[in-house]
Amino acid sequence: VMGYIHPVVEALTLLLALYVLLLGLNRFSANHLGRKGSFAWKRHVNLGMLALLLMLAGVGSGMLSTALLWGGFLVTGLHWQVGLAMVPFLVLSFLTGWTMHRNKKKRTGLPLVHGLLGVICVAMAVVQAITGMKMLV
User: Fold this and answer.
1) Handedness of CA 29, 31, 37, 38 (dihedral sign)
2) R_g of the chain computed on alpha carbons
3) CA 85 to chain centre
4) pLDDT, tens digit, for every residue of 103-130?
5) For the residues of 47-63, what is the DSSP string, one character each?
6) Rounded to 5 degrees, what are φ and ψ at 71?
7) pLDDT of 37-65, one tens digit each?
8) What Å distances lie between residue 128 and 45, 52, 78, 121, CA to CA?
């Protein structure tokens, strides 16, 4: 059972992150592609912070799971390498989002950086899902 808590929580977190990314794409489309639509700011912020924090916690819980189940850290190859590489992107995504939320004003560059960071985080999480599934079977 212990070995499945981390992958189940992270799979749900990936689904949440994809939803948050979709919300952000609506904003991007309105700001840069001229499409009309509303932006669920509070939902994007709250669920985005939750997804990022869960992903950060996933790095720690993954290391703990590995230590308990496999007797060591950093023994899962590409899975742990991508997991650790995600940390700065997760932190920067959180900080750029937090900055925009705390100090609301018209911006162009920071939202693009934040969005790119979010896309990178989700892409890395997909790699994590793929490499993680290989360890479960």
Assistant:
1) positive
2) 16
3) 12
4) 989 888 999 999 999 999 999 999 999 9
5) HHHHHHHHHHHHHHHHH
6) 80, 20
7) 778 899 999 999 999 999 999 999 999 98
8) 23, 14, 8, 10
Residues 22, 91, 118, CA angle at the centre, nearest 5°?
20
CA distance 111 to 97: 8
Q: The tokens of 62 are what? A: 């993954």
Q: Which residue has the tokens 């912020």?
A: 45
Q: What is the pTM of this model?
A: 0.91
> Which of 67, 48, 87, 72 shows the shortest CA–CA distance to 6?
67
Can you read off the two tokens belonging to residue 136? 């479960």
Q: In this structure, which amino acid lies at residue 27?
A: R
Alpha-helical runs (H) found in the chain:
2-32, 41-70, 78-102, 109-136
- Residue keyed to tokens 């869960």: 54
- Tokens for 105, please give them: 């004003």
Report which of 133, 92, 134 is spatially closest to residue 114, judged by C-alpha positions.
Answer: 92
